[in-house]
Structure formats: C-alpha cells, structure tokens
Amino acid sequence: PCVCPYTGSRSAAVRTAAVRPTGAGHRIHHIRARADSRVRRRRMLHEHQLLLALPDEGGWPGEERGDEISAWRMRERMKTPSLVLVLALNIGVDPPDVTKPTPCARLECWLDPLAGPVAGQKAIEAIATALQQQYEQWQPRGTKTVRACLDPTAQEVRKWCASLRRASPGRDERLLLHFNGHGVPRPTVNGEVWLFNRTFTQYHPVSILDLLSWLGTPCVLVFDCHNAGRLNEALAAMGRAGEAAPKVGHDVIVLSACAAHEELPTSPELPADLFTACLTSPLRVALSFVRRDGLVALPDELLERVPGSPSERRTPAGELNWIFTAVTDAIAWATLPRDLFRRLFRQDMLLASLCRNFLLAQRVFARYDLHPTSSPPLPEAHGHPLWGAWDLAAEAILTQLAAAAPPPSRVPSAAAGDERGASGASPEGGAGLARPGGPSCSPSPPAVPPSSFFTEQLTAFEVWLSRGAADAAAPEQLPILLQVLLSPTHRYASLLLLGRYVSLGPFAVRETLGVGIFPYVLKLLSSSPTAELSTPLLYLWAATMLYDRSTRIELLNHQAHCFFVDLLRAHHSPRRPAAPAARALSAGDSPSGGAGGPPGQQEGSLPLSAPLSSVLALFVLTEICDRLEAGGGGGVKKNLQI
Fold first, then answer.
1. Is residue 378's pLDDT more than 70?
2. pTM
3. CB atoms within 10 A of CB 276
4. Which one of 118, 352, 611, 642 has the minimum C-beta count within 10 Å?
C-alpha cells in the first residue's frame, strides 16, 4: 500500500485509484481532487495554528503574485575577479594645490614611505603589494588578476583596464579600480583626475568618463583623495544631462573618501590613506578607535597581535571579525531599502565587504566632520545604536586579552607585520582581519571566555518577539541570527527564535528570506541535521514552502527532500531503521540538549507532536510532488511507499 500524496491517507489512495474516471472526466476529477486537497491542507494547517502566509483574497501566494513572492531571490550573482590599483603617490613630492602640515599623516597601507626598512622609491612597490594582499583577503579564491599601476601615465592605465576587461567580458564580472591620488592635485569640478607624463614633469587630466570607457561595466570605483565627492557629482550631472554615461549606482558603484568640498584628515595619529584602511583593514581601524574611546588603557601592541586566526571563530581574532560582520550587516539591513541591501550586500562577496567597511568609514570620518560619499548613496549610519554594542564587545575582548596574556615587550615593526599578515574571511565574504597592517595572529591564543555579544542579541530578539512583534518594522537583530547560525553553540536557540518569528505571518517569512537565511537552512537540511535541530527546521521549511512553493526546486536539487521522507518513515514504520535526524521525533518529538531543554517544555519552543510533524513533513512533500514536470517527483513518490 502507498500513501496518497495529497491527503496522507492509505485508504484514500486506494479509493482514488479504484474510481478514477477516464478522458475529460479524468481531467475534471483531477482538478477537483487538487482543489479538495488544497482545502484539506489549509484546514489541517489552520487547526494547528500554522496558516502563515495565505493572503486575504485566498489562493496560493506563489501563483498569483509570483514576482512579489520571489523578490527575495537574487536575479543574478556577481563577482569581482580583477582589480586595477592606481597609486599616484609621487613619494617625496607634494602636489601644488595641497599644503601639508608638519608633522602630518604619512602611512600608506600602514607603511611609512619616508622612513623604516622600506623607504624611497621602492616604498611604492611595497605599498602596492600590501594593498593587493589586503584586497585579496576578501575573496581569496575569487580574485584572478590584480594589476598595480605605480605613478602611471594615462596610457598605462588605459592599457591595463582594457586588458582586464577583455579577460572578464561577462555581465556577471565586475572590475574594481582603486585610485589613490595623494601625490597628484585634487580632482577638478568637471570630474577629472590627474596622472603623470612619462618624465614626471607635468600632470595630465583624465575624465572619469574616459576611465569608465576603458574599464567597462559593471565596475566598482574607489577614490581616496581630497575632494573625491566631485567625481560622484560629475557622474550624476552627466546622467542628468543625458550624456552617454553608464547607469551610476547599478552598473557603476562609486565609493569616495569625502564630499566634494572636503579634504582628508592630516593628523599624524592617522594613516594618510585612512579611507583605504577602513575599506581594506577595518579591524585595525575599528579597534584603534575602541581603544581611544574606551575606559581601560590598552597597549598599542595588543592591536597588532590579536591572538588566533580570523577564520577561526573560537579565537579572539575570529570572534572580533565575526561580531564586526554581524554588526555592520545588521546596520545595513536596518537603514537600507531591501532591494538595495540585497544588491550591495548579497550579490557580490567583495562588494559586500567593501560596503560593510564603508559603514565603518562613515563612523570614523564623522569624528572629523567629514562625509564619505557613495553611488548609490548610503544613508548616514554612524550613530546607529549597534555601534555601541560593537564597542562594548570589542573592549571586553581586548580587556580580557590584556589581562590574560600581556603582549611581549619586543613587538615586530609595522613592515614586518605587513609581510607576515593574516588571512581569512567570513563565510558570507564579510569583514575580516587584514593581512597587511591588520592584527597578526599568535600561535597559541590565551584562553579567554567567549563574548556575550551573540547571547545578548538573541535575548534582544526574544524580547522583541514578546513585546514588539506587533510593529511593522522587522527586528534589527534578524541579520545577526544569520551569523549565529554559523555557530553550533547558538544554532538551536536561533532556529527556535526564527520559528517563532515566521509564525507571525507572511511578512516575517518574506523578511527572513530577504535577509539571506535560505541558503543556510538549506545547507543545514541537506547535511543530516541533529535530532534537536529537526523540529525547528521542519517548522521553518513548512512556513517557507507555504509562502513560496518555488523553493521545492532547491530541495530536490540538494536531495534535501529525503529529510522529510525519513521523518514519515520514522513515524509510520517504527520497525524500520530511521535516519538520525528523525529518531528523536519518532520517540515523541522531544529532542533535548539545546537552549534549556526539549521543545514543548520550555518557553518559546515549538511544541510539535509526532502527528503534527507528520502533517508538516507530508505537506512539504506534497508541495514538492505537486505540479512538477513529468518524472520530476517520481523519486519522491517512490520513497513514500512506506
């Protein structure tokens, strides 16, 4: 005997096969049977208070409003495989329109070009190498080519831009141009940057439109120079005038160090390329300002020797990296429109890292009454409350490190630290510790207790569910839950909170999918989840399938439907060996060992009994089988012969 894929009843399957008509009557009967099955499914879910995403006008959301339902999906993925680094420094010669105080900021990529082990004309080569390493850390497996143009002419920049575009012609391949113009005059109001002639006797202007024509689109432009906002304004004016300029903010992303009327800070306490430092080595910049504003005196050496590896979240360096990524992601989620957030923070790994770090640049430059600009414009977020949570967590970690293992008296020089470096990036391409100039890693990190940051954010999310769930705005901790899913320690608690959140209705499912949690829960489902994770994952997938039925394609592609089949087998055939993820559910749906005890016995859990778990699993499998192409659900239906 087999189970009917619509009703879950064995006898119903037999009766349907016995009285099924033929011809036109068969088609009418099939339409009526499907309509009746939908009514039965809706009634079953409603009885268990799980009718989450049906609109007021009735019907399945994914059919009548497909564009709106699938808006959370990324239409296309992008990558940035090639970079052009244009360093117009002309070390030792100041531009004619810039008067530098004495002393002034001199560090470029945390190297002093006029002193130290690397100085003089060879310093620009060391600076280019350090900058290249800092960029490569954000996507260590995605960068194909980096070209450094050192004090170049316009012809050299044109040659390398055209060469890299020929090597990356696809519409899903961005090129990045980083312009450091600290050794040339500031940009003109007409949108021109300055380069050198071959003998360094003259400055030649190059229009930003010429740069775009050489570089092609899509591309990312980073300008670190005085009055960099003039270039943003020139691009915007060209677009308004109807000139043949690319679509700025879509095909062309621009990040500039300051507004059109502003000059970069020159304090000797800061690096000369402070904007570049914020974008490419954010942890060192952020921790230096945490130490400056903190209540506890911390040694300078501690910032250069944060123990551990940024890719290991259980080490201090990795935990700081993890917290910084979560904070900047949450701030962007709270301040940006949803479509812009997905385009800047979910489409391209390198671009997402730069945009997160741009939020840090906004905060750092605001202390000097300066305003980094971007296209598309990002709202000012330097006063967001989550920055206070970052300061508290970072200062607590640094204080514990200083107390547990004071750094040695002899500390390597900045140049040695640059050559040594540290690599790593978060799974989402998030903020990491910079190799050059970033905190280095000691071989044996001291034992310090983990930060309470994520526990506090989970508590805040739970308070929102209890007190503020009636508000229309999504909780700002939602992106942090995505980062928490990476930790086995907090994974169960975060899944329970996500289950409670999606039970609020279709808007909650939409926000959960929009923030980017779907790939994570899909990976959890297809990687043999533990018994305690089965219940919240089952609930989340039932809500997701009810909201957007197109997710069944991913389930089939990843063979994740076997999870739901195993659940049904465990419930209906106890003599058969059940999958590890289903054994606890077959015993009564009371997995223990996470966040205070078994579901159904603690506040905020998901009390799913074995019958209700069968209903949800059968609902998901029914949606997978329904309306698939011929043979698409055959494998699932065969597995349902339990």
1. yes
2. 0.80
3. 23
4. 611
